[in-house]
Amino acid sequence: MNYPTTTHERGSLHVAELARSAGVTPATVRYYARIDLLSPSREPENGYRRFSMDDLHRVRFIRRAQGLGLTIGDIKSIFETVNHGDVPCHQVKELVESRLHSVRDRIAELQATEERITGAMLTWKQMLDEAPTHDEICPLIERLDL
Question: Most CB within 10 Å of its CB: which of 39, 45, 50, 104?
Fold first, then answer.
């Protein structure tokens, strides 16, 4: 991939310009570059990073992928597939399906936690405020049947 190296070349963006165009913070752009999700060039005269329109496309892809629950590791894997000249769509489907199972498991865990919290709150309404005994930290928690 050829990256523009001067500020006058079309499609060459500084960190802040890329961030603004992609709807992310400059810190996010720098992070993506640091972990090799982006490949900026450097201006020879001052060392500033310059990003291409391909980098802008990648940032937008990263944000969409994260919106589907994909991790940075997942996204790196997708980019590696692309860099090898392969189409990653089958891989993406598998990753998203796996993420869906994880999300559903997490939702079930959260619902069970919600039920325990609701039950505790109902129990506590009926309990008098008591000082803990010598071997208790907080009777509200320790006297619950969970």
Answer: 50
